[in-house]
Amino acid sequence: MSLLSARLALGWLIGGEWRAHPARLALTAVAIAIGVALGFAVHLVNGSALSSFEGALRSVNGRADVQVNATTPFGFDEALYARVATATGVADASPVVVLRATAGTARFTLLGLDVIRAAQVTPSLIGIAPAGVDRRTDAAFDGQALFLSSAALRVLRVRPGDALTVAANGKATQLRVAGALPGVAEGQAIGVVDIATVQWRFGRLGRLDRIDVKQADGTSTAALTAILPRDATIGTSASDATRSDALSRAYRVNLDMLALVALLTGGFLVFSAQSLSVARRLRAFALIRTLGLPRNGIIATVALEGLAIGLIGSSLGLLLGYAVAYAALTRFGGDLGAGYFADGSVRLAFAPAAAVGFFLLGVFAAVAGSVLPARIAARVAPAAALRNAGDMIDPRTPVPWIPAAALIAVGGVAAQLPAIGGLPIFGFASMALILAGGIAGMPWLARTVLAPLARRSGRSVASDLAIHHLHGAPGQAATALCGIVASTALMIAMAVMVTSFRGAVDEWLGQILSDDLYLRVEGSSGFDPAAQAVLRATPGVAGIAFSRQVPLTLSADRPPVTLIARPVDARFVLLDKADRLPAGTIPIWLSEPAARLYNWKVGATVTLPLAGRYAVAGIWRDYARQQGAIVMRETDYSKATGDRTRTEAAITLQPGADPVRVEQALTARTPRGLARFVSIARPATLRRYALELFDRSFAVTYLLEGVAVLVGLAGVAATMSAQTIARTREFGMLRHIGVSKRQIVAMLASEGALLGLVGGIAGIALGGIMAQVLVHVINPQSFNWTMATRVPWGIVASVAGALVIAAAGTATLAGRRAIAADAVRMVREDW
Amino acid sequence: MHDDALLRVSSLAKSVPGGRELFRGLDLIARPGQLIAIVGESGVGKSTLLNILAGLDRPDAGQVAIEGVGLETLDEAALTRLRATRVGFVFQAFHVLPYLTLRQNIALPLALVSADRRSITARADAMLERVGLGTRGGGYARDLSGGELQRVAIARALVHRPAIILADEPTGNLDPETAAKILALFSTAVRENGVAAIIVTHSEAAAAIADIVLTLTATGLERRA
Fold it and tell me: In this predicted structure, which of A253-257, A365-369, A533-537 has the lowest mean pLDDT?
């Protein structure tokens, strides 16, 4: 007899169960749906943002085969162009100047191009004058002509023919909007002007930022690489993609993992619900096995239920996920508030492969959560199950702890292993193993925690019954608790990680914001030495430390680090420092992420794309620049780059000076052209702003935490009510022997509270261990910064309290319902 | 000579895990239309014997054959198939699934081997009619009394035309009046269908309807006069 021939009977059994307990099945399907929805939404948002960002890069690069890029914003000598254009394997080359430009308050990327060369290499960057507005065929060669992409036309609110004052590199000039850039992708604000105009009008004479190269067929970039000076590097579409991927990869992978956690919790909830459902139907299964259903028919029945839960949950989850992704993109942007992709709009792109993947993951979680209890049910001897009226509980049976300890130990070992490809794969594996070990150890924990209570007597009947039931059947308690423990542990782990991170950032802000005022120039060239001297002499100013930040590309396939020129004094707090440096080297101080990303050690000699030999003098803490930063003394920086302008200043006031008056005086002394680009802030404002940014970055994490809490509490409600209903006959018997309804409700409330307490203890302990993996393994491996653990005791206490109250409350409600029937009917109830 | 025995048990022995011997040298033959009652003290192994006859438990020694097929020669899948097609069960606790309709409960043995919904429903309805519940097929267990539930169980035991029916205390949960009605129905159904029935019981009323009453002791089955 095959399962196929028994399909009608299987259909009846599944259909009957669904009709009898629609709410239970709906809840488990919703748990899967939430997991799938979160995973799919996060993946969609990340994918859409990355795709838009890469699109933006391609637009600005004009789809050249290869680019020679400057490693700093100062560009490289234009003499390089002639050498590149005549290098082996180069079919054509187009010189480019790239500037961040402003017009009014709007910002865009301004490209200076040689139209004739660009037409051969990057035709998508060639402007077209619209018929009817500007019929001059020589518009492309007009020095004043500015061609704008449709996004730039929109943000600048101009039309072909309009005049526009454009500022860049500290200079401003008037240009005429001559036409559009139809080859540039929608959403990218780009302007193109003749290269000579840009070099002349914006102070970039003799300098280039990029050379776009068209390669001859089948050639490599080796010949080009050989002729490049230090301040230029080779970029290809592949390295561009790697760089944009590296920018936010760790963040995206971490979000994906957090979203999968929700799916995992959903899987545990299905396991919990199906275990209880199977326990309740044990005699029904025994009956149909007696009547002739094969052993695997039981597994098939429960697995089919799981499959149906998975199919419904996953389908709902995909729909919900798409809606959530749309809402998240609209509300938080493509990086979900983390600030990785600040520019450009992001369009939601459906990802069929991801949809199929998350659908299958949801189905797998539901089926796996069903098959495990089904296998246990199928192993039960049908004759024994048919005659057995109660649980096969033997409180003397020892509860194994070795498998749980082994899983946790292996998890501990996995946490010690290094990252793979910059991703903390073993860190996540470690968390999964610790979680699995913790859940496997639940029966042992329940028995151990309750053993002292079970040995004592003399309490109320209700308490005694509750403690002895849980102590005698710790496996049942574990089944009921696994979803709760999983969600609590993950929630605590995330809360500890976020609290540790936030606390570390707050402390760090206190260290770095030790001056009275901070001044910054944005979108312009900065203060020249004369302007610096004027500001230094401002009344009320005791001291002013100027600094400059510029991007510095160290590797074509990594985002640039930030090079910071600033005074290095005793207030500069270091994590590590070199005792001595090699003779003739210029000292630099690496931020912690820079040291870890480039694997540079204190005291080592390193090569930067700047003139001179450098050595790492120390490592400092930095939570602001994930891609790394390098501090150099102001004087060394000026020598290496020739740049004497400064864009930032930390100001110490004279004792008793009024900050408001000093602010006003500083603003008044700012050169006229710079005034609108200058902002002055106090430490408290900067600190508040930084922490607001932090909270925005973690907004999605808070959301995922909230979902974990809800799923966990839903798990408490579902498992408590299912267990209570399954014990209706036990309650009937108790009432027959004289236990009152009130005592039974009190017993259930006690059991619920004890379950919540044990689950809370286990979840918090596991969460604490997993938080150590998050804080000390996953965070450093993903983001390259370290921090100390900080425990959010308030959240921990609230979670424990909420679990106890939710468990006791739902158990009481379910108990009231269960004992509503009369006692005689309860004991006669067969099922 | 043609052997018309539907159930043949020879030299059966069984001990419980602790080593206590329940019975040994047990022989039994059941023929079509024959109703055999097995009585005995609690713990003597009546239910264990029934489980062995159904292929749900294995004896320590001896053979059980249903329609000439030795159960010891069958693997678990074949035993399952045999139960699904040739054995019917009636339990003391009825075991009527609460989430299936009465018609579905009765049709369950048929649905385990066939997906022909129309013929299954027709046979289940015919059985409902036979046990006096003709109009209740769409109802559920919670709508029925104990006697009515056992009628459903008897219908389920007969619907797939088994060779033997094994009944474990079929009237143990019923009052004497209802028990008498159920026993009469059971007896008629067994004889009309030509099946062999083995009833394990403590009830004298149940034993009274049997053609043969056997007392189970440690040394086997003894026929009661």
Answer: A253-257
